[in-house]
Design brief:
Blueprint: H1 11-14, H2 48-52, H3 62-75, H4 86-107, H5 109-119, H6 132-143, H7 147-173, H8 177-204
Helix pairs in contact: 3-4, 4-5, 5-7, 6-7, 6-8, 7-8
The protein binds zinc ion (ZN).
Length: about 210
C-alpha cells in the first residue's frame, strides 16, 4: 500500500533498550504503563500515528482517530494521578501534552500533509516564486479600501486553500513530492494572506463598530 510507511517502533524493544524508570523491567516504546509494576512511563520517541495507536497512513479514519484520542485522554486524565507521586503526575502531564500535539497534527489535513512529507524526509524548504494566485490576492488586498473588499479576498483565499489542501493530498497519495512541496508553499502563502486580511480588516473597521 502506497500510503503506509513501514513500522519500526518495535525496533527499540527488540534491542532491549527501553526499561521502566521505576522497576527497570523491559517495556515497549508504545506502552503508557509498565506491564510489570503498572507505573506510567515517560514520553518516548514515537511518531504521531503510533502515539495514537492508529495505522500510519495519509488518509486516516477520522472516527477511529477521535475514538483513540478520547480513550487515551481518559486514561491520562490528571484526576487519575492525583494520589500518585509527583514523578508520575509529571509523566502523565507530559504524556497528555504529547498526545494533544499528535492529535492536533493528525486531525488537521494541512498539518497532517506537512507531517507526512516530513516523515518521508521530502520537505525541500526551498522558497520558490510566489504562486500566481498568491500574487493576485496580495495585490487585491493591497488595493482593498473597505471591509467588504477584504472579505472578498478572504473568500477567494479560503476557497484556494480548500482546493490546495485537496491538491496536496493528491500529490502525497501519488508520492509526487515536488508537487506536494509546491502545494505546501502555496498553502503557506494563502495562510499568510488570510492572516494579513484579518489585520487589514481590523484596521478598516472603526473600533467599537464590530464586524
Ligand atoms: Zn515497572
Amino acid at each position: 500500500m502506497l500510503n503506509i510507511v513501514g513500522l519500526n517502533e518495535y525496533a527499540a524493544l527488540a534491542n532491549g533498550t527501553i526499561h521502566c524508570w521505576l522497576c527497570q523491567k523491559g517495556v515497549t516504546t508504545r506502552a503508557l504503563f509498565c506491564h510489570h509494576c503498572g507505573t506510567i512511563q515517560p514520553v518516548r520517541e514515537l511518531d504521531h500515528f503510533a502515539r495514537l495507536g492508529i495505522e500510519r497512513r495519509l488518509d486516516i479514519d477520522m472516527e477511529h482517530l477521535e475514538h483513540q484520542y478520547a480513550a487515551l485522554s481518559r486514561t491520562l486524565d490528571p484526576q487519575r494521578f492525583l494520589i500518585r507521586g509527583i514523578g508520575e503526575r509529571g509523566y502523565a502531564a507530559k504524556q497528555i501534552e504529547a498526545l494533544n500535539a499528535a492529535y492536533d497534527t493528525l486531525s488537521e489535513p494541512l498539518k497532517r500533509g506537512r507531517y507526512w512529507l516530513s516523515l518521508h524526509s521530502q520537505e525541500s524548504g526551498k522558497a520558490t516564486e510566489p504562486h500566481p494566485v498568491i500574487k493576485e490576492l496580495r495585490s487585491d488586498l493591497d488595493r482593498a479600501a473597505e471591509p467588504a473588499q477584504c472579505d472578498r479576498v478572504a473568500h477567494k483565499a479560503g476557497h484556494a486553500l480548500e482546493q490546495g489542501i485537496m491538491g496536496l493530498m493528491q500529490a502525497l497519495r501519488g508520492q509526487d513530492w515536488p508537487r506536494a512541496n509546491a502545494q505546501l508553499h502555496e498553502l503557506d502563502g494563502l495562510e499568510h494572506i488570510l492572516g494579513a486580511v484579518r489585520v487589514k480588516r481590523a484596521e478598516l473597521v472603526p473600533a467599537g463598530k464590530g464586524s
